[in-house]
């Protein structure tokens, strides 16, 4: 029987950020999403595997995982883990006036896993964050932590600084419960022409707006096919396709197989 995606909420309703040690009793978990927060997981000890969407990562410590709210993930840990977890709501950034902190988070928000080469002081910063309650101090500690993670991790290529338009476009696409297969729909929400949105996407990501949109739609379709009992017709409806036959053709164009065949793999 196919498992449903559970929705976990590990942060209080009124809290904007939460930092705590990684629970050492965690070994195996079922596929789940997070309830409206970005999660940063640092492991200094532990072995096993971490699956995020369709990617399986071997846990080679020290390492950091970044999990967006729309992603499905689960653990298969084979030895005692040690580390820390940061839960960060969007409202935290909205309340923050530290633009450097926002920039650091923007750099990391589209990365899934980083190998830490020099972990010195990273544990200490996490430990300070666990007990800190002052918002301003938390901002400073979090900024220092993210800067050290970037500086001491395996090199990765950073994308061109995103304009407000491309950032807002991607924010809309993260609202996976209301995806629309229409560049014109998002251009209208951004109050620009589809041609302008396409030009911005090509300049920033070397992809057309429809290609970026298509990746989000296909990722969400795969999540629902893998982790829900929704029929193909129901998934097509959830993704705002006019009919299931169009959705099937769309999915096959990207994946080379039908949704039903993908589910049965």
Comma- or semicolon-separated keywords:
single chain; 265 residues; alpha+beta; Jelly Rolls; Arc Repressor Mutant, subunit A; five-stranded antiparallel beta sheet; three-stranded antiparallel beta sheet; DNA-binding protein; RmlC-like_jellyroll; DNA-binding; HTH-like; transcription regulation
Share of helix, binned: 40-55%
Q: Which sheet architecture does the biggest sheet show?
A: 5 strands, antiparallel
Structural class assignment: alpha+beta
**Element order: H for helix, E for strand:** EEEEEEEEEHHEHHHHHHHHH
> Any idea of the CATH topology of the largest domain?
Jelly Rolls
CATH architecture of the largest domain: Sandwich
- What is the strand content? 15-25%
> What is the averaged pLDDT score?
87
| CATH class wording of the largest domain | Mainly Beta
Q: So, the CATH homologous superfamily of the largest domain?
A: Regulatory protein AraC
User: What is the domain total for the residues?
Assistant: 2
Which value, in Å, is the CA radius of gyration? 19 Å
Q: In order across it, which strands form the biggest sheet?
A: 2-9-4-7-10
Low-confidence stretches: 155-162
């Amino acid at each position: 029987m196919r498992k449903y995606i559970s929705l976990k909420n590990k942060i209080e309703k009124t809290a904007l950020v939460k930092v705590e040690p990684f629970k050492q009793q965690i070994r195996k978990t079922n596929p789940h999403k997070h309830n409206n927060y970005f999660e940063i997981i640092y492991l200094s000890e532990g072995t096993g595997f971490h699956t995020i969407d369709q990617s399986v990562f071997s846990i080679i410590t020290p390492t950091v995982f970044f999990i967006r709210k729309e992603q499905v993930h689960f653990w298969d840990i084979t030895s005692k883990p040690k580390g820390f977890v940061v839960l960060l709501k969007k409202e935290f950034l909205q309340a923050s006036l530290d633009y450097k902190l926002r920039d650091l988070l923007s750099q990391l928000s589209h990365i899934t896993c980083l190998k830490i080469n020099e972990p010195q002081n990273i544990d200490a910063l996490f430990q300070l964050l666990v007990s800190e309650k002052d918002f301003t101090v938390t901002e400073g500690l979090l900024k220092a932590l993210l800067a050290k993670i970037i500086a001491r991790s395996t090199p990765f290529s950073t994308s061109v600084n995103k304009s407000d338009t491309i950032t807002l476009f991607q924010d809309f696409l993260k609202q996976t419960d209301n995806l629309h297969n229409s560049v014109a729909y998002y251009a209208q929400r951004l109050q620009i022409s589809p041609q302008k949105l396409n030009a911005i996407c090509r300049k920033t990501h070397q992809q057309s707006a429809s290609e970026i949109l298509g990746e989000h739609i296909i990722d969400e379709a795969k999540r629902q096919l893998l982790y829900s009992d929704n029929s193909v017709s129901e998934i097509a409806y959830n993704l705002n396709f006019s009919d299931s036959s169009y959705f099937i053709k769309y999915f096959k164009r990207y994946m080379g197989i039908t949704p039903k065949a993908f589910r049965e793999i």
